[in-house]
Amino acid sequence: MKILFLILFTSATRATTDVEKFLSPNAVMRQLFEIFRNAIKNGSKENNVPVLDPFVNLQNEFNIDHPNMRLFANLTNSVYSGLGDFQLKKIFFLKEELAVDLTLLFPKLIMESDNYQMKGYIFGLPLFGQGRLRFEVKDLEIKSKIHLTLSENGIATLIEKFENPQFSVRKILSNTEFDENIDCIINKIVKDVLATYITRFNKYIIHTYSETIKHFINVFLDRFDTWRIISSLL
Ligand SMILES: *[C@@H]1O[C@H](CO)[C@@H](O)[C@H](O)[C@H]1NC(C)=O
Ligand SMILES: *[C@@H]1O[C@H](CO)[C@@H](O)[C@H](O)[C@H]1NC(C)=O
């Protein structure tokens, strides 16, 4: 979810990157991810990317409407952090398929908000209330084969599709005010079951949201002049 908001606020431009020709394709891919990490953490004027970690949003509304996940949330002064701390556990460039095989780990993603209102449920777990919100997602690991494609402007490398994507979450901690009387109960339920539920239904979640996720990641990738690097590997 975080990624979706973050990338919404970027706009198009081109990047200049410097990749050594003699590196192996996998090392080149790792360098690209370091360029993205730098842009996420420090922002990039050149590429018109704001600082995305931490990312501050004064006001945002979520509206998820799906049979197993129905949630309306209105957040004020939200801060999202941890996106730039990803670890690239595995990346394998598949030249013939123009794809990468990827395992990416986010050790800790934090979402905090001064004031929120929320109503809904995720897989039968009711989430409602208002007040301060803090969720901490531990060890979100994403695995996928990702097919790449050239952007319309002929400059950037975009995601064409995810093949067999999956993810897991080790733990979600919540320190959120729901309803004064039941804060600790709901926070404990979140801690005990939410990560397990989300992991168990990960394929369903990805299937439901993969086009949206792809779109937002591509809005980010479209800012970077990376095609010439990828094409040098082909
Ligand atoms: C952010 O910029 C600083 C100063 O230029 C640099 O030392 C640091 O490595 C950059 N951060 C990342 C993640 O690249
Ligand atoms: C969201 O919160 C803001 C600030 O409290 C409020 O002005 C706005 O009306 C809320 N939006 C909805 C849809 O409730």
Automatic annotation (TrEMBL):
<protein>
    <submittedName>
        <fullName>Uncharacterized protein</fullName>
    </submittedName>
</protein>
<feature type="signal peptide">
    <location>
        <begin position="1"/>
        <end position="15"/>
    </location>
</feature>
<dbReference type="InterPro" id="IPR010562">
    <property type="entry name" value="Haemolymph_juvenile_hormone-bd"/>
</dbReference>
<keyword id="KW-0732">Signal</keyword>
<dbReference type="InterPro" id="IPR038606">
    <property type="entry name" value="To_sf"/>
</dbReference>
<dbReference type="Pfam" id="PF06585">
    <property type="entry name" value="JHBP"/>
</dbReference>
